# Entry
Amino acid sequence: MGDQFWWFYDVAAAAVVLVCIFLSGRKGITRALTSLVGCILAFAIALTVSGSISRSIYKTTIKDSNSKKLAHALEGKDFTQDIKVYLESLGYNIKVDYKKLNEILSSGEDINNKLFVYVNSVNGKPVDDEDGFYEKLYEGEGEIISGYVTEELSKFAGATAKKNIKKNPETIDQFAPLMQIFDDPNEEFPMTKAGKFISNHYISSAYITLVRLIAFIILVFLVVLITWFVFKSFLDDDSGYQGIFSHTVGGFLGIVNGAVYVCVVAAMIRLYVVLGSNEMLFFNHSAINKTYIFKYFYKFITSTM
# Structure
C-alpha cells in the first residue's frame, strides 16, 4: 500500500488550519466569531442529524436490495459443508461427520458450545481448550459468512460482517438454521430469510456508516452556507477599523475553525477508504496511522461514525 504518502495528510491538515487562521485573522474578531459559531453549529447539526438520516435511508432504500442480492448469492451455498471443511483444517486430526454437524447447526440452540463438545469427542479425547477453540471457531464462521457477503457486495461489507460475527457469536444460533437446504417447491428464493438476517445483523452498520459519512459532509457545507448568508445579512460589508487585538483574536479563533474543517476532510478520507475497501494506493489505514496529527482527527470521525 502507499503508506509512503502519509506525510501528505499532515501537510494538508496544517494547510487547512493555516488558511483558516489567515482568513479569520484578516476578518477580525467579530466576523471570525460569527464564522466560528457557524462552523461549530454546522458540525454539531451534521453529526447529530446524519445518524438518523443514514439509518432511515438504509431501512427504506438499501436494506431490501442487499437482502435480495444476498439471497441470490447464498443459493447453492452449503454452510454445513463449509464449517466441516474449516473444522477439519484446524489441525485437530478429526473427520467431521456431515450428518451430525448438520444436526448441530440445525438445532438453533447453543450451537458453538455443541460444536466444542462434538469436536473434543470425535476421537474420544480433547483436542483444544475452550478459549482456543472458540477463538478459531468465531474466526472461521466470520470468514465463511464474510466470503458470502463479499461475493455479492463489497469487501468493506464483508469485513464488517466478520467483525460483527466475532463480536456477537451467539447470533450463529439464529443464522445457521436459516442456511439449511430445504426442498420446498413453494419457496421461490430459499435463502431469503438468511439474506435478510445478514442484512439486518451483520452488514447494516457498514452501509449506515457509508451513508452517514456522505450525509455528514453535505450537511456541514449546507449549514455553513446557510449560516453565512444569515450572519451576512446582520453585518455590514465594511466593519470599520480592526485593531491588532481584533486580528490576533480572530486568528486564534481560526484555529478552531480549522480543526472543524480538518474533521470534514477526515470524513471525506474515511469515505474514500471505505469505498476502496482500505486497498487504494493513497487512501488506506496504513498511511493514515503513520501521521502525527491527522490520525487523531481520523480516529475521532471513525469512532463517531
Observations:
- The chain has 13 helices and no strands.
- The CA atoms of residues 4 and 211 lie 29 Å apart.
